[in-house]
Amino acid sequence: MSGTGVAATQFEMQYVYLDGDGVGSKLHAHLINANMEGAAGLSESVTRVLGKIASVLRATGARIVFVGGDNIFALADVDQALLESAIALFMAETGVTASVGVGETASDALLALTVAKSLGGSRVIWRRGSTPSGPKCR
Fold first, then answer.
1. What is the reported pLDDT for 12?
2. Are 124 and 83 in contact (CB under 8 A)?
3. How far apart are CA 113 and CA 115, in angstroms?
4. Fewest Cβ atoms nearer than 10 Å: which of 1, 3, 47, 105?
């Protein structure tokens, strides 16, 4: 805990950007192989799990900015455990990993998401000011 009583991996009302890892590539593979059922099934599972994750975020008081494709962007007061459970749920329901970037500004969240993906995905990265951090940000 910091001197303010806020856990190091929790900031109040941060921008949160969740994005599926490689969903587009998997959809493209289904299309290239003329597997319309596979493409439709993946699309439906992604849409369904994003709805569930958005509902969980709303229950914490989050303001959902958008849900679309394989993304959720929100302004939320969340912690590491909740975001890791969202990633686990995404994987369980789609068979595809997801990454999350969290930041004080929308651009910080986008940059944190970019770092998470560049480190292999399936992780949460927090960005506060100019420093990305997280349990797997190494």
1. 82
2. yes
3. 5
4. 3
Q: In 10 A of CB 52, how many CB atoms?
A: 13
Instruction: Identify the CA nearest to 125 among candidates 15, 6, 4.
Output: 15
CATH 3.30.70.270 fits 14-133, yes or no: yes
Q: Distance (Å, rounded) from C-alpha 114 to C-alpha 137?
A: 12
Q: Are 20 and 100 in contact (CB under 8 A)?
A: no
84-113 pLDDT, tens digit each: 999 999 999 999 999 999 999 999 999 999
Ordered alpha helix ranges (H), 1-138: 23-32, 36-59, 80-94, 106-118
C-alpha 47/C-alpha 131 separation (Å) is 32
What is the rounded distance in angstroms from the CA atom of residue 93 to the CA atom of residue 106? Answer: 27
Q: Where are the domains of the chain?
A: 14-133
Task: Of 41, 13, 14, give the one whose Cα is nearest residue 27.
Answer: 41
